[in-house]
Structure formats: structure tokens, C-alpha cells
Write a structure and sequence with these properties.
4 helices, SH3 type barrels, single chain
Length: about 130
């Protein structure tokens, strides 16, 4: 797998170009697409990529906040890869479409990071 950082002289990308990008698992199965990015204004970090998953024509879709560091861009797939199975994703914390205020809750956020085996970005490094 190659990342944009390795191939591109410019590692920056507009959030507009990230939204709608397909997300695959390591086996190449399409899991969903990036709905939006959530930025932490105070810390200057991408906190989450919110991924839409499942449903048909937007009906029954779930929204999964993924810690940004769980996604790796793959130029060959023209999408992001996460090391999750569909089953793991189905058990992951979800939120309703447009319920972005839920991500302000650090308890919910900690459960998201924990599910993906990541340390929350707001946790001080000791």
C-alpha cells in the first residue's frame, strides 16, 4: 500500500476532496465513504473522519466516527483503507446523520478511540 505522503510532493489535501472518498477494508471490500471530517479548532487536529456505512440511497445508513489515524490513503484504490472487518464496523460506536454535537462528548469520543485501539488525541503524552 502506498500513501499520498510517499508519492506526493504535497501531502496536503482539501477536506472537500476527502468527503465522498471510498473507504475499504484491508481485503478490498468497500465499507462506505467519508461523510465529513471533524476538526478540533483548539488543538489544530483532524479528530474524526465520519464514515457513512450501509443503507440504500441514504436510508438506513449509519455514521461511524473513525479516529483519523485509522485511515491510510491508497492511491491504487483511490480511497482510504482501514484495518477493520465489516463485523467490527457493525459493532463500532455510531451516531445519527448530522448529530455532530455528539462528538463533543469526551466519554463518547474515548469509546470511539478505544474501539479502534487508539489513544485519544487529547490525552496528554506522559
Amino acid at each position: 500500500m502506498t500513501t499520498t505522503l510517499e508519492k506526493s510532493a504535497n501531502p496536503l489535501i482539501s477536506s472537500e476532496r476527502v468527503e465522498g472518498t471510498t473507504v475499504f477494508n484491508a481485503e478490498g471490500d468497500k465499507l462506505g465513504s467519508v461523510d465529513c471530517l471533524m476538526l478540533d479548532k483548539e488543538h489544530g487536529k483532524v479528530a474524526y473522519a465520519v464514515m457513512s456505512f450501509g443503507g440504500f440511497l441514504g436510508i438506513g445508513e449509519k455514521r461511524h466516527p473513525l479516529p483519523w489515524q485509522t485511515l491510510a490513503y491508497d492511491e491504487d484504490k483511490d480511497g482510504y483503507v482501514v484495518h477493520l472487518s465489516k463485523d467490527q464496523l457493525e459493532r463500532a460506536p455510531t451516531m445519527d446523520a448530522g448529530d455532530y454535537d455528539r462528538l463533543k462528548d469526551r466519554t463518547f469520543g474515548a469509546s470511539v478511540y478505544s474501539h479502534y485501539g487508539q489513544t485519544p488525541y487529547w490525552t496528554p503524552i506522559i
